[in-house]
Amino acid sequence: MPPPPLPPHHRIIKVARDEDFRSRIGNDGRYFDLVDFSTIDVFYVPDSLTIYEFKGTLMEKFGTPVQCQRLWWWARRQNKTYRIDRPLTTEEEKLSVLHPHSQPTEINEDDALVFLKLFDPEKAQLRYVGSLYVKVSSRPSDILPKLRSLAGFCASEPIELYEEVDFDPSVMCEAIDIDLTFSASGIMTGDIICYQKSPPQNWRIYSSVVSFLRHVCDHKEEEWKRHILEEEIVVLKRQADTDRLQKDESMTVCDQLKHERDNVVRQMNELCDQSTPVILNFSRKDLEQAIEHFSW
């Protein structure tokens, strides 16, 4: 169903939560990015409401205390993906939802919030496992114990890290050098890190999350082509049904005209059968009078 119309002097605010990431990624063939903005909660907020007051609305909806909420801006990147950009400042939370932006003053540029996906090569499964603050001046090797703990791996399990960059028009998922700093690898707030166990040697089926995502992307393209063909078949069937209906209607009209014609012919024959021949008898005198004005 389409959303209800926007009331006057209101703004639409969409809220994506960690629960949305967790419920989406890995379900129904959805593996890329973080969230589908067409499926998350939508709020119609009066223009006069401040961001801080709106957090009260969120507490009523989700049960999260205001002091435990941290709101973030989302931004559209050059590759057309949407990722979180920065948290709202205290000053911004005092502003109305109509003019919420201000010059950020509380941003620690050494902190980055990254999102984590875990790939299981044996099950060919990718799922969301959470988010993590990292120091961009630190190295991915520093967070390996935390990643192993989130995945339930043993402390010595070798793991591989990849950055999910893009998936349209093709998959871009690049290996991360764990000995370079996050900053040197270009990892920043909003980025997605996929990680996995190092697969056994000669592992042939989805040895890495990269091959898995490429397979998913190719499969989606095949599904898209099949969907297009199915739509074309539906259109052709609908056209054939329309043509058949028009033909049936034409045949009905033709049969009706034939029936009317047969009725007319039948009625004429009946009239002919019912008519009585008239025999006229004229005397010789009448005939002579009738032809006396004709010359031969």
From TrEMBL:
A single MF term (Gene Ontology): cysteine-type peptidase activity
SUPFAM superfamilies tied to this protein: Ubiquitin-like
GO cellular component: nucleus
InterPro entries xref list: Ubiquitin-like_domsf, USP7_ICP0-binding_dom
Keywords, in A-Z order: Hydrolase, Protease, Thiol protease, Ubl conjugation pathway
Tree of life domain: Eukaryota
UniProt xrefs under Gene3D superfamilies: Phosphatidylinositol 3-kinase Catalytic Subunit, Chain A, domain 1
Domain Ubiquitin carboxyl-terminal hydrolase 7 ICP0-binding: start-end pairs: 69-221
A Gene Ontology BP annotation from the UniProt entry: proteolysis
A matching Pfam family: USP7_ICP0_bdg
Family recorded in the similarity comment: Belongs to the peptidase C19 family.
Protein name in the entry: Ubiquitin carboxyl-terminal hydrolase 7 ICP0-binding domain-containing protein
Organism of provenance: Oryza meridionalis
